[in-house]
Design goal:
The chain is mainly α and 471 residues long. Helix content is 60%, strand content 4%. Bound molecules: arginine. Arginine binds next to α6.
């Protein structure tokens, strides 16, 4: 068939909008236009919203109590039968999830089923469904973020004696407790939980009752629909309500930040499991081998978590770009929101679960980490602080210690291995107590302000962190 020639669809059409049309829909366009293959995920939300709308129509006097009861029971039947046998999704030419539910309803309840769409449009319906669906997903994701936090706390608690090098510019900087590293990621995820809760509040607004764009002319009590569906508030402008996808953008934004945090955990773990670092070992359960090199143990779990960040960012960009040029109010472009949002939620959930498993099974090589933390002049700042305590201005102390480090590098030793006499050659303020100051233990213990890596601080931070996620 020549390109562009109309392809007729011989399936029985069960469109919701056929009256005005005399010609059939081109099959290629139809496949392009239909969203049922993906928006079927909104099925349960669509039925739930439909039941609430049915109740509102009854209260408004549009449906008698007998009619409303019949519609409710038909909707319950549809929910039960399709959930029991999801293959029914594949045996229908439905355009989208809304037409699927409505055509089923008409099959069961006959002409009465056709009354349900009174005062409602697919525009306020789809916005309602998506908000209902996303609210549940946010709750799941919130729980999974908390699980990662819990795994970090357990890992910290089980390894309280472990010291690792802390880095800036990926150069050895100052020693830190491994538990302090765990708590750094805990804090990132704590902000994610806050962000998700805030996004949830703006997701939890009822658009139903906005109809196509102008509002509904039936006496629907929107506040009562909101209460029934668990929405905290109702939308204030019908034009905005049917064309607003800020809640999707915000969710994708919050998910992108979660993904950034997971990617950073992943990157640290990938790095620290290399032979060069050797601080961690991944469990076999979350590593893979090479088909060619028998010795390999690859951190694929963490690499995928790192990589999938790109996918989530892509969805955020796609959503922003889809929305940016749209005139008011609803436009079909907005159907493109679903696959991005669905995949964002799925990917975030997968990444969170895998990260929890990796952390729960991570082995920490204490002696290797400690040896690394004791080398590389990471106590140089300590020596400068020591001189400051003895009365030297910090800038001068910095310069003095810089020269001592240079000497130590030349003689291939660490600061604490230089003889006292040699150290005193740089400053007479240096005494025998310098070696205590240079020890790993005192380096850590002095960082005792809130937020520091001193062991008692970190212990207290773990206790506080546990409480923060228990409420
Ligand atoms: N499948 C559509 C979507 O996802 C539902 C709304 C359709 N509304 C319309 N006026 N065609 O956006």
């Amino acid at each position: 068939m020549p390109r562009g020639k109309l392809q007729m669809n011989d399936e029985t059409d069960n469109k919701l909008w056929g009256g005005r049309f005399s010609g059939p829909t081109d099959a290629t366009f139809r496949a392009f236009n239909d969203s049922f293959r993906f928006d079927r995920r909104l099925f349960a939300a669509d039925v739930r919203g439909s039941i609430a709308h049915c109740n509102a129509l009854q209260a408004a006097g549009v449906l008698s109590s007998v009619e409303a009861a019949q519609i409710r029971s038909a909707l319950d039947t549809i929910l039960e039968t399709v959930q029991a046998d999801p293959s029914q999704f594949d045996q229908t030419p439905a355009e989208d999830v809304h037409s699927f539910v409505e055509s089923r309803l008409i099959q069961i309840a006959g002409d009465l089923g056709g009354k349900l769409h009174t005062g409602r449009s697919r525009n306020d319906q789809v916005a309602t469904d998506l908000r209902l669906w996303l609210r549940d997903e946010i709750d799941l994701i919130f729980g999974l973020v908390t699980e990662v936090q819990r795994a970090l706390l357990e890992l910290a608690q089980a390894n309280m004696s472990v010291v690792i090098p802390g880095y800036t510019h990926l150069q050895r900087a100052q020693p830190i407790l491994f538990a302090h590293w765990c708590l750094a990621y805990f804090e990132m995820l704590a902000r994610d939980r806050e962000r998700l809760s805030e996004v949830r509040r703006r997701v939890n607004v009822l658009p139903l009752g906005s109809a196509a764009l102008a509002g509904t002319s039936y006496a629907i009590d929107r506040e009562s629909v909101a209460r029934e569906l668990g929405f905290e508030s109702i939308s204030r402008n019908s034009l905005d309500a049917v064309s607003d996808r800020d809640f999707c953008l915000e969710f994708a934004g919050a998910a992108a930040i979660v993904a950034t945090h997971l990617s950073r955990i992943a990157e640290d773990i990938i790095l620290y499991t290399t032979t060069e670092f050797g601080f961690f070992e991944l469990s076999d359960a979350v590593a893979t081998g090479s088909s060619l090199m028998p010795q390999k143990k690859n951190p694929d779990s963490m690499e995928l978590v790192r990589g999938k960040g790109g996918r989530i960012f892509g969805h955020l960009m796609a959503l922003l770009t889809t929305m940016k040029g749209l005139p008011l109010a609803y436009n079909k472009d907005m159907q493109e929101d679903k696959e991005s949002i669905f995949d964002t939620a799925d990917t975030a959930k997968e990444c969170l679960s895998v990260t929890t498993t990796v952390l729960r099974n991570l082995r920490v090589n204490e002696s290797r980490a400690r040896a690394a933390a004791e080398q590389g002049y990471m106590n140089a700042t300590e020596l400068a602080d020591y001189l400051v305590r003895k009365g030297m201005p910090f800038r001068e102390a910095h310069d003095t210690v810089g020269r001592i480090v240079k000497r130590a590098i030349d003689s291939q030793s660490e600061l604490q291995d230089l003889p006292l006499d040699e150290l005193r050659g740089f400053s007479s303020l240096i005494d025998g107590d310098v070696f205590v100051a240079l020890s790993l233990e005192s380096t850590l213990a002095t960082k005792s302000q809130t937020g520091g890596t001193a062991p008692e601080r970190v212990e207290a931070a773990i206790t506080a962190a546990r409480q923060r996620i228990s409420s």
